[in-house]
Design a protein that fits this description.
Strand order of the largest sheet: 1-2
Order of helices and strands: EHHHEHH
Low-confidence stretches: 1-6
Structural class: mainly alpha
Radius of gyration: 13 Å
Distance between the termini: 22 Å
Shape: globular
Largest sheet: 2 strands, antiparallel
Strand content: 5-15%
Mean pLDDT: 92
Helix content: 40-55%
Number of strands: 2
């Protein structure tokens, strides 16, 4: 096993509403099952990050990242921007959430 702290995965990660819907279907989690989505997307606040992903990707678009680092920067950047717009402190994407996103969105 390699270092878990600062790993760089060179993979493709794909985000779209269709991908998110398929993730829920494949894990038999209903869209209104907040606890199930929390568990699937990395634990406490997993639903928050699931909703962030849905919000950051327009309904008919697809976002593709070529590394975990790029995905993390995009998701955290979106969070930072929307928090600034709402004049609130942004949430920090934790390692558990990032690991879940990487696993679920890997192509």
């Amino acid at each position: 096993m390699g270092s878990e702290g600062n790993r760089e995965t060179s993979m493709t990660f794909i985000l779209s509403h269709k991908v998110l819907d398929e993730i829920l279907q494949n894990h038999r989690v209903k869209p209104n099952d907040l606890a199930g989505i929390d568990r699937l997307f990395g634990g406490a606040d997993g639903y928050y990050w699931y909703h962030t992903l849905r919000h950051m990707c327009p309904a008919n678009d697809t976002i593709v990242w070529t590394s975990e680092k790029e995905m993390r920067a995009a998701v955290q950047g979106h969070e930072n921007e929307t928090a600034a717009e709402d004049e609130v402190k942004p949430q920090e994407l934790k390692e558990g959430h990032l690991a879940a996103l990487a696993k679920l969105l890997a192509a």
